[in-house]
Structure formats: structure tokens, C-alpha cells
Amino acid sequence: MAKIVKSSESSELVESSGERLSGKELGTAVVTTDAFPNPGLPPHRQRVTDTDPRRLARAARIVGWLFYLSIAGSVFTIFAYMFFPIEDGDTTSLRLSTLYIGLGSAFALLAIGVAAVHWGKAVMADKEGVDERHPVRGTQETRERAIEIFKEADEESGFSRRSLIRNGMIGAFIAFPLPAIALFRGLAPMEVDPNNELKHTFWKEGLRLTRDPTGVPIKASDMTIGSSVHVIPEGLVDLPEHEKLDAKAKAAVLLVRLKPEDLNWTSDKRKSWSYDGIVAYSKICTHVGCPVALYEQQTHHLLCPCHQSQFDISNECAVIFGPAARPLPQLPITVDAEGYLVARSDFDQPVGPSFWEREK
């Protein structure tokens, strides 16, 4: 029952009877309430597997076999990758490979999830418990009790005792990542050396620099100080679509014009790779290959939008911030007899991420 105790000016106790108190009385009163009784836990409702040992054994077998079905799904995914390869230009092979790999991976993961849920609902011990939490480090007795709880949990879950479930679960978790490892084989061409594949691009001596995506050639006089243009090699737009995308992924370049006196060179060789303050650098970030295309005109910095690596164009695109490990490769350029910007050669080093094996 609620009680109202007036301030120290009066020791009178007034039992609450539903009357509305005035503002003055509320301001000088202290309200106390009796503690609610602990309702306790509801009666425990036993499951079928708690009362029938045969049902419990059957549930344990189902959980174990679900884990083994997950292993089968992972193995199927690997075989689907091996026996249903994607052929160039064949959309049917692409659909079949994607379908079978997706079904195998989904089935493997679904079986693990269903097994875990069924294990918890039908096999593990089903009883309520209350954990008393302590704000500070527990006593030695409490810590020893915690170890006992872990042992009890192991016993209740049956992890150590039920070998079918344990071995099936371990096998499923080992097998599930294997398809991903197999799929990694397709990230780089298998018939060529990745180092050489990235070292040679569509660029070669005499190719004009053209605007991306129109393919219109660029004259040096078109470039004003502070301007930046996305460029691709001459002739790239005429390639078949799948070849064009592959070539562009390696040959994309950012063309920028600075004041010649703002450019700092470590060698005369690199200085000859520019023309009247115009420089060309690969757009492929040396971290993980994102397109570096955000140019800050005042600072001469290039920013990669993926992981915020920054490169200084005025200092040979050296890395000044972020996870990138090396400068952006520079494309040597000059002008032809008509004043168009042309490449002097291909890049002198592989483009793209630094995790590829490289020659010293």
C-alpha cells in the first residue's frame, strides 16, 4: 500500500485513499512504495524429447545428418565450379554456373542453420536459469563456479558426448569455406602470369590520348591549368564490348595539367614523361584497384573514394595518406606533329593493387 509521509515540519502519516493532493502538499511529501513480490518463473513445460528417449535420440541423429548434408552442399558447390565453367560469351554457361554454385552454397549454409536451431530446441537441456551479475571481479569461488557452469553447459548440450553431432558440426564448418577457396581461383587468369597481365596494357607508343567514353583525341592546347580529364587509348572504343571493358580496366588514365614549376621530379627521365605541365597517371588505385578520380585542384591531390588513399600529383603521385603502398604508375606522354597528346610507351610498371607478385 502506498504511504505519504509529510516533511519534517510534521510527523503525521496519512494513508492514501484516492484523494487528490494540493500542489503544496505534493511539494512537501515523500512517496514510498512496498516492493513487489518476486513472481518467480512459470512452470516448466517439458518437451517431447525430455520425456521420450527415443525421440531425443532421433532428434540428435537429425542434427548430425543435417551437418553432414551441409558438407555435401559444400562439396557440390566445388564440383559445380569445376564441371560447369563459364565460357566466354556463353550466357547459358554463366547462368548454369551461377545457379548451381548458388544452390550449393545456400544449401550448405541453410543446413548448418537448421541443424543449429534444431539442436538448441530439441536436444540441448531445456531449463531456465538466472545469472546474478557482479559489477566487479568475482570471488575465487565464483570463478570456480563459472568453470563448473561451462562443464555443465557442455554436458547439457551433449557436444562432447554426442559424437555424431560434434563431428558433423566440425566437418560442416570446415567444408563450408572450401567453395570460396575454390572460387578464388577464378579471380585472375589461369593461363597467364598475373604480373605480366597487369604490366602490359592497351597503351603503346604513338597512341593518342582520347576522352572517356567518346574516344575524341585531346590536344595539349585543350588542357588548361588545373583541369583534369579521364582518358583512354585511341581505338579502345572500337573493340568488342567484353574486350573493351577488360582493356579499359587496366588502361584508364587521369590527365591533369599543372604549372610546370609546381612539378617536382626525381629524375630527368620522369620529367620527359610530361609535356608543358601535363601529366598522365593510372586511375587504378594501388591498394585494391578502385578508380582514383577525385582531384583537388588547389592541393594537387588525388583521392581514392574507396579507402581514402591520397596521392600527390606534384610529387610523382607519391602516397601521402591511406593504405596504398606505392605511387600510381605514370604514363609517359608527348605530342605529335598535329599537337595531339600521345603515349610515348606503355606504363613502366604493373598497374593496379600491390598484392600481385611483382618483379624487383
Task: Describe the model.
The chain has 360 residues and is of the alpha+beta class. It folds into three domains: 3-32, no CATH class; 48-128 and 139-187; 194-343, Rieske Iron-sulfur Protein (3-layer Sandwich), CATH 2.102.10.10. It contains ten helices and 13 strands. It has helices at residues 23-27, 48-51, 53-83, 91-123, 140-157, 163-175, 178-183, 194-199, 241-251, 268-271; strands at residues 3-6, 13-15, 29-32, 209-211, 228-233, 253-257, 278-282, 294-296, 301-303, 310-312, 318-321, 333-335, 341-343. The protein has a four-stranded antiparallel β-sheet with strand order 4-5-6-7. It has a four-stranded antiparallel β-sheet with strand order 8-9-10-11, with no helix packed on it. A three-stranded antiparallel β-sheet has the order 2-1-3. β1 (3-6) and β2 (13-15) form a beta hairpin. α3 (53-83) packs antiparallel against α4 (91-123) and α3 (53-83) packs parallel to α6 (163-175). The protein is elongated.
Question: Keywords for this structure?
Answer:
360 residues; alpha+beta; Rieske Iron-sulfur Protein; four-stranded antiparallel beta sheet; 14% strand; elongated
CATH architecture of the largest domain: 3-layer Sandwich
Biggest β-sheet description: 4 strands, antiparallel
pLDDT < 50 stretches: 1-18
Number of helical elements: 10
CATH topology type of the largest domain: Rieske Iron-sulfur Protein
| CATH homologous superfamily caption of the largest domain | Rieske [2Fe-2S] iron-sulphur domain
Total individual domains: 3
Q: Could you tell me the mean pLDDT?
A: 83
Quickly give the structural class.
alpha+beta
Number of strands: 13
Q: Into which percentage range does the β-strand content fall?
A: 5-15%
- Report helical residue fraction: 25-40%
